[in-house]
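Lecture notes, structural biology module. Today: joint structure prediction for complexes of two components.
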Amino acid sequence: MFDIVARWFPHVVEYRGEFISSIWETAVMVGVSGAISLVSSLILGVLLVTTPKGGLLAAPLCNRVLSYAINVLRSVPFIILAAALVPLTRALTGAALGLRGAIFPLVVGITPFFARQVEAALMTIPSNLIETAYSMGFTPWKIIRRVYLREGIPALAKGTTITMVSLIGLSAISGSLGSGGLGDFAIRYGYQRFMFDATLASVIVLLCMVGFVEFVGKIVVDATTRQ
Amino acid sequence: MTHLFSPSLDSERKHDEPREAIIRFDKVSKTFRSGDGEHAALHDISADIFPGSIFGIIGLSGAGKSTLVRLINGIEQATLGEVIVEGQKLSQLNARQGRKLRTTIGMIFQSCNLMPSRTVRDNILLPLQDKDLSREEREQRVDSLLELVGLSGRERAYPNELSGGQQQRVAIARALANNPRILLCDEATSALDPATTTSILDLIRTINRNTGVTVVMVTHQMSVIKHVCDEVMVLDHGTVVEQGSVYSIFVNPHDALTRTFIETTSNLGRINDLIHADNPAITIGKRQRLIRLQYSKEDVSEPLVSLMTARFGVLVNILLSDIESIGGRPIGGLVATIEGSAENIESALDFLRKKDVRVEVIEHV
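The predicted structure, tokenised, for the full assembly:
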């Protein structure tokens, strides 16, 4: 077994310590920035759905500003966004490189996309259900918690799965900016030093990660869907 | 025979005691503003709904009936006028008082609106979540509500595992969870088949009689009004065209729309279909008239038709006849051809009118 791996992936075996820590770094980057982004995206997504005219927390101006800001952020390619954020990242986290430097740009990069996913998920909840909760005398906050967020779980799980897959992709891109992780490993060894097996191994691990995310997402969606 | 149709003790008592309205519409108007102008949904509506009654609001789609019922729990607000619920002017309530009021008003909808990710039990518990109740009290409440609506043992089911009628029963249980004093029903039976509709209406009436909850029922089906309501308001394009006790409206409808609604529930309405279809049963000869009679006297045993034929020398051929009971009181009617000389027919019809029979000559030939 080890012989086959050593034959096909000689450089990966040679640099296995770094390879394994790259996997770990990618997992941490995706996990931490995903968790932070989940919280901020739920807040933004709820605001996007509830602030339009006639909504639960109607504030049309706020809605337009928010929507516009999200569109602007989404239209900047991630690699340029991350580069442009370097001064801010350094000011906030004290580092622009490595894991610490990677998480803030990833959060900024994925949150607009994630917030739109949350918005789309919450839009699937029929307005009848909101009206019903309102007729029970619930406060807006309770309607958000008990109807939007609770009844939206299957759709939110789908949106979260899609987002996490995109986030794994972004984490690899940020590798080219010195963030560490599998993207960094693939570029430094596989691309710049022509060790193609390093690139291939990174791709295989990333594929496994995406597969795992999709698998967990499907389990959650299937367990919560009642239509 | 007669005692069957005597008014119940209940309705007699209602007439004797002075009552205060639990819901009052005082010159209420509602206008929706949208980008391309204004749309008047309701115009100058006034009505009193009394505690313990079942009040029907009927109209065609777009008549404003759903908007009207939504004014009661503040889902919509009146543009002009005042809605007063249990003595509170809704326009003067702040957001928190409005929510508090809504917890005392149950509402059911055409589409049931059960929360799909929650079991029957959790749906019923939804309005109780902010109540300070122990675990046992909650369980007991769910059990007794399920028993009331006839769904004991189904508390673990999800809404998608239930039929439409069962879902509406859960919705009723949920609406009653807080012991509301008012139950609003917005087209609650419109999506159900006739047999299920009847069972849901019977359930609502039983609950009304047992708990005294005031029911406001919006519908486009006169059969629903006839089946359960005490009072009815007929809405047309946002205005009240007729209002009163269901019995009086059925006996003496003034508005054409009301008559159209009533005909949908009466066997006598079929005469229009027969005329349209040129049915040979209603070819009318030279000396004949097609008449419709409606009598609402409690004594329906007097043989008026026989008396009339004997006394005025006319021949009567009954095509359709119908007798039904509304709120325990009878309404009878028949469609017939009457044959004889013009004077005799006229005197015969006058005789009927003097006996408080409503006479309508449908078609002259």
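Point to remember: Chain A touches chain B at residues 126, 128-129, 131-139, 142, 146-147, 150-151, 153-154, 224, 226-227 (CB under 8 Å).
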